[in-house]
Amino acid sequence: QKEVEQNSGPLSVPEGAIASLNCTYSDRVSQSFFWYRQYSGKSPELIMSIYSNGDKEDGRFTAQLNKASQYVSLLIRDSQPSDSATYLCAVKGLGNEKLTFGTGTRLTIIP
Amino acid sequence: NAGVTQTPKFRILKIGQSMTLQCTQDMNHNYMYWYRQDPGMGLKLIYYSVGAGITDKGEVPNGYNVSRSTTEDFPLRLELAAPSQTSVYFCASSLDSNQPQHFGDGTRLSIL
Q1: B51 — alpha (psi -120 to 50), left (phi > 0) or beta?
Q2: Which chain A residues have a beta carbon less than 8 Å from that of B33?
């Protein structure tokens, strides 16, 4: 079992709809969770960080964390063509100095 | 706001050559990381550092070396370039291990 798993996609969503990206992790004591967006040929950029169970909203983005079920998700409301990118989930375990990245989900917003 | 700066942006090496990828950050971050990303793949950690003078291996350290003499700089050295090291290399930094990592723009390296 991979430490951090994401559906590789591609995930296609109509413009204006909600895009839902999911990530599961295996380390039960993980404590820090991050979503990064990576455009083709570019470096990852931070979208959201979340540390506690529940939802965290920032503009059109909402991160959801459920530690009991070991998953973290990212919702993108009112999806725009500019949201088309690969989204990377990253998780840090307790006592671990490193992040573990998933392989990413490629999202395409269809105009 | 420079953030994390990587040089060079592109480089072509011949097999067996050596080179150093430079990374510097101006955010006074303690933690610095080197990743490689092969086409269509995820990020793989090569080396990381939790502070000046302290480095540790990541997932794929073979063929690479690092040093951390200052808080700002974390160079990555390839001693004997091999075709398998063709990749995009990203440097990142964070204040501590629980804070988000900030990435540089990357170095695209081809070994021919």
Answers
A1: left
A2: 98
